[in-house]
Amino acid sequence: MLDKNKVKLGIAPIGWTNDDMPDLGKENTFEQCVSEMALAGFTGSEIGGKYPTDPVVLKKALDLRGLTICNCWFSTFLTTKPYEETEVEFIKQAKFLKDMGAKVIGVSEQGHSIQGTDKSIFEEKYVMNDEEWKLLCDGLNKLGAKAKEIGISLTFHHHMGTVVQTEEEVDRMLANTDPELVSLLFDTGHFTYNGADAVAMCKKYINRIKHVHLKDVRPEMVQKVKDEHLSFLQGVRLGTFTVPGDGSVDFEPIFDILAENNYEGYVLVEAEQDPAIANPLEYAIKARKYIAEKTGL
Ligand SMILES: O=C1C[C@@H](O)[C@H](O)[C@@H](O)C1=O
Ligand SMILES: [Co+2]
Question: Which residues belong to any copy of the Xylose isomerase-like TIM barrel domain (predicted)?
Fold first, then answer.
């Protein structure tokens, strides 16, 4: 069982409107999204493209519904742009998140990423050379130090189609960054999609994990993506991802590892799929019930 005083439960707005493909859920407003998150029993949220950018307006809307911002995606370009360009934007975002009450900022390296392109996700991923690895890891350490000064933790999101996708890439990134400055944003869906053992990865890196994305995977859709050489986003439209308990990820041992190691932080449902097919409120309630049953949260 997870400790309610230590572990908080959140949900991402991507089930209502997908910022990577805004036509998915374009009809869903910000107010509907946050109201339904609260109605389904969630208390945390990440930031989506439709969220007000004025912190006062955003905070009021969230307070009315008992919600708190716990993280936001931040794209780094450490391997393709001068470090300073990324740092300026990173500091702005980290300060904003800190003011909103978040404890982490979720970084993903988007230099050379194919996640938003039409390239085949299983065949055309970029692999970094030693020089690019150094740019990435040194840059992450520097950003992590900035985040620490601001009072927030940098968590790194491994992701399909990016330069840190595979188990080996996650190993190398973590081995070459300072545990005091760079933590892991553990995403169950991205490890499973890539063919890694999410349970083993959770066990291996439990001491580096500071934020968790609970994402389930429909294996038959991943197989279709492989067979038909589809892109990451084509897969999302087909339904590669779903809410915890609705796919093939084995969540129970993951919850056990988090509980046994006194994990403190958020577990956040993040299940992008077509809202016209998977009603966001219905799926949020389904996820909430599953998590309550398996964790006691
Ligand atoms: O954390 C995430 C943010 C999304 O934009 C992304 O594509 C999704 O798959 C994810 O894990
Ligand atoms: Co994620």
Answer: 38-291
